[in-house]
UniProtKB/TrEMBL annotation:
High-level lineage: Bacteria, Pseudomonadati, Bacteroidota, Sphingobacteriia, Sphingobacteriales
Keyword Cell membrane set for record: no
Pfam families assigned to the protein according to its UniProt record, in alphabetical order: His_kinase
The protein's name in its UniProt record: Signal transduction histidine kinase internal region domain-containing protein
Entry keywords, A to Z: Membrane, Transmembrane, Transmembrane helix
Segments traversing the membrane: 6-24, 36-55, 67-88
The species this protein was found in: Mucilaginibacter corticis
SUPFAM superfamilies referenced in this protein's UniProt entry, alphabetically: ATPase domain of HSP90 chaperone/DNA topoisomerase II/histidine kinase
Gene Ontology terms for molecular function: phosphorelay sensor kinase activity
Alphabetical list of InterPro entries matching this protein: Bact_2-comp_sensor_kinase, HATPase_C_sf, Sig_transdc_His_kin_internal
UniProt KW Ion transport keyword: no
Domain Signal transduction histidine kinase internal region: 110-187
Gene Ontology terms: cellular component: membrane
């Protein structure tokens, strides 16, 4: 009976060690199965010698316990070690399959939602085209221009926002449309100055979609006031591999009852997190803020 208690004790300790420590660490380092059996052999030897010492000198059990060592080693390396590896591999495989099923289910749900979302946009595009034609007939040039740019922006969001990367030229076109729409809103205010310096982009450069617009949205949201002098300056240029983007705007205090008062900076936090995910180690974002001014400087290595 004592012999089997001894064998069981070693088996339990080795299984726990291999499942919780040895196998995960070897998998993380990309080691092969031979390293696992080498590690199990060393662990088996250490545990057996420790238990032999305990049984002989602490618990003072019979000397025949030493003859169990070869049998125990065979059991541990021949049964426990392969069993632990097999159980761990199957558990990992089951977890991966479950994760894959969840991902596939999520993608199917997203595709269904996307197909459903196509119904309303077609109606909206038709409505915008009707409004655009009406504006031209009534000689409302500014209104027609705004409707056309809004339609282009909606088409961009539906067709290209789903991709991982798009051409930088298309991203900048969306940016320009947004700026032009905002200028239509404020162009009659003489105390509002909006300056854009956007250089021609290289056709082969690509960027994650909708990455730059949050900075411009933030500038118009917090940098424009119809009661105070305001300014926004936006500049963008590229070299062979990098994008350089600057936004400098005035800053105005929001009223206490303004719903946007507590949302300041949330959009920028989100885009900063997105930059870390899409361009880790390949971007530099600098933000400076004072009581009356706000400035961002962004550099992205687009070929990474």
């Amino acid at each position: 009976m004592l012999c089997w208690k001894y064998v069981a004790s070693v088996s339990i300790m080795l299984y726990a060690f291999s499942s919780l420590v040895l196998i995960p660490s070897l998998k993380a380092d990309g080691k092969k199965i031979r390293h696992y059996f080498i590690g199990m052999g060393l662990a088996t030897a250490i545990i057996i010698l420790l238990l032999v010492w305990l049984f002989r000198y602490v618990f003072q059990t019979p000397h025949y316990i030493q003859f169990i060592i070869p049998i125990n080693a065979v059991i541990q390396l021949g049964l426990v070690a392969p069993a632990a590896w097999y159980i761990y591999e199957n558990r990992q495989k089951s977890t991966a399959e479950l994760t894959g099923l969840k991902t596939a289910l999520g993608q199917s749900s997203a595709n269904l939602d996307f197909l459903r979302s196509q119904i309303n946009p077609h109606f909206l595009f038709n409505a915008l085209n009707t409004l655009y034609g009406t504006a031209l007939q009534e000689n409302a040039g500014r209104t027609g221009e705004g409707i056309q740019k809004l339609g282009d922006m909606m088409r961009f969001m539906l067709q290209e926002n789903q991709r991982d990367k798009i051409s930088l030229t298309r991203e900048v076109e969306y940016l320009k449309n947004y700026i032009d729409l905002q200028q239509l809103r404020v162009q009659t205010s003489p105390d509002i100055l909006i300056e854009t310096i956007i250089a021609e982009q290289l056709n082969y450069l690509q960027i994650a979609p909708m990455l730059l617009i949050p900075f411009v949205e933030n500038a118009f949201k917090h940098g424009i006031s119809l009661q105070e002098p305001s300014h926004i300056k936006i500049s963008l240029h590229t070299d062979e591999t990098q994008l350089f983007f600057d936004v400098h705007n005035s800053k105005h205090q929001k009223k206490n009852n303004d719903p946007e008062r507590d949302n300041n900076g949330i959009g920028l936090e989100n885009v900063a997190q997105r930059l870390e995910l899409v361009y880790p180690g390949n971007h530099d974002l600098v933000i400076h803020e004072s009581a009356r001014e706000f400035f961002i400087h962004l550099v992205i290595n687009l070929t990474a």
